[in-house]
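Postdoc handover notes: sequence design on the structure in folder B. Input tokens:
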């Protein structure tokens, strides 16, 4: 439940129309009579990460070299 709502929120975030909290609130109010469309923590977390990605770009990856494991 909430997969299409999550995609809609991501679309609105990507277009810069709203932040992830506003997007979740709107989807919950419009799509569910009990305001329970997007409630799963992983969906909310994804939208928060997606918003960061849209604003700041892809995080830099750093490689490490493991020389010895004891």
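Designed sequence:
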């Amino acid at each position: 439940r909430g997969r299409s709502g999550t995609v809609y929120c991501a679309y609105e975030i990507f277009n810069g129309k709203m932040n992830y909290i506003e997007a979740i609130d709107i989807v919950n109010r419009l799509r569910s009579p009990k305001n329970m469309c997007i409630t799963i923590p992983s969906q909310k977390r994804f939208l928060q990460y997606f918003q960061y990605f849209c604003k700041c770009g892809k995080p830099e990856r750093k490689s490490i070299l493991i020389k010895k494991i004891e």
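Context for whoever picks this up: The radius of gyration is 17 Å. Don't rerun without checking with the PI first.
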